[in-house]
Write a structure and sequence with these properties.
alpha+beta; 6-stranded mixed β-sheet; Deoxyribonuclease I, Chain A; 25% strand; 28% helix; 5-stranded mixed β-sheet; globular
Length: 332
């Protein structure tokens, strides 16, 4: 079974309020990409991915006047995907939902939030060591799913879109530093909260997949030393704890000087006139699933040899989103 995670930049802007694709030549929300161009690119990427389940980060908006599940299922029907059924959890106010698109012939999936506090509420933790608890919320609450395969195997899945550490809105060096540190505190608090939920599942000996865009990774910014470790290291767990596993994260944590650098996202830096690449997307599994998992893959248009040697797919990956899919094969 192939499981994947994919952050689709501004997927919501490709649909009207009835959930129909806006297949026209107007501009999408992606820089210098038309809506029809992005839709065609996504069709190529999702078809090539051919996953049994895809955790979609920045899924179509869902609220009183828009139905993100309907939009995704319309997209899947139009593109003729096997993964044609969608499920969504707590909706948010950012126009960037978290949803699972899956093959109903291979599995069932239902939103099943567990534990206290729920991810759509708040978490209290002292972020700045002043003996006063800070209140932390997810702007995009993680999607907790109970999955059952067609053969009756059950496992848990948590889709994640953690807070960005980027200092948006800052206009001076002091503001950049203050906002960056504040955002990192909140991002780490979210990861601590998530790790507590993960430990509940691991303690119950439940098979678990945690996947999505964590907006973090070992050594990604200069403020990490202030807090001792990255959010990803918190989510994976310490060496004396039951750890999750993602080989790309593992290599980033333990990489020697000059070692392999994996990347899953590509952003244009307008002030520097160049591209920046980084690893933000992860697919982590519990120890029991690690024994059954193989072929972790970042569908990078230049680093993955199959993607690079397939010109249509290579171009589509660049047009479809500023992130690239990450997948794994699990032999259930």
């Amino acid at each position: 079974m192939r499981i994947a995670t994919y952050n689709v930049e501004w997927f919501s802007n490709l649909f009207d309020d009835e959930g129909n694709l806006l297949d026209d030549n107007e501009w999408s929300a992606r820089h210098d990409v038309r809506r029809r161009q992005q839709i065609e690119a996504l069709a190529i990427v999702f078809t090539a991915l051919d996953a049994d389940a895809i955790m979609i980060i920045e899924a179509p908006d869902s609220h009183r006047r828009r139905n993100g599940v309907l939009a995704l299922e319309n997209f899947a029907q139009t593109v003729e995907l096997r993964a044609r059924k969608a499920v969504m959890g707590f909706v948010n106010e950012t126009q960037q939902e978290i949803a699972l698109l899956y093959d109903p012939d291979k599995m069932t999936a239902r939103h099943d939030p567990v534990g206290t506090p729920a991810f759509d509420s708040e978490y209290r933790i002292d972020l700045d060591i002043d003996a006063e608890p800070d209140r932390v919320r997810w702007s995009k609450p993680p999607l907790e799913l109970a999955i059952e395969t067609s053969s009756g195997i059950r496992f848990r899945m948590i889709g994640v879109h953690a807070k960005s550490k980027a200092p948006y809105g800052a206009r001076s060096p002091d503001q950049i530093m203050r906002i960056a540190i504040e955002n990192r505190r909140k991002q780490l608090a979210q990861c601590i909260w998530l790790r507590e939920r993960i430990e509940d599942h691991l303690d119950a000996e439940e098979s678990l997949v945690v996947l999505g865009d964590f907006n973090d990774g070992p050594g990604l910014d200069e403020y990490e030393k202030l807090f001792g470790r990255s959010g990803i290291e918190i989510v994976i767990g310490d060496e004396d704890e039951i750890q999750l596993y993602d080989p790309h994260a593992e290599e980033m944590i333990r990489r020697p000087l000059g070692g392999i650098v994996h990347t899953s996202a590509r952003f244009w830096l307008s002030d520097r006139k160049r591209w920046m690449e980084t690893l933000l997307d992860y697919l982590m599994v519990s120890p029991d699933l690690r024994k059954k998992a193989r072929d972790w893959r970042i569908w990078h248009p230049f680093d993955d040899p199959v993607c690079y040697k397939t010109p249509e797919l290579r171009a589509a990956l660049l047009d479809a989103s500023d992130h690239f899919p990450v997948s794994v094969e699990i032999d259930f």
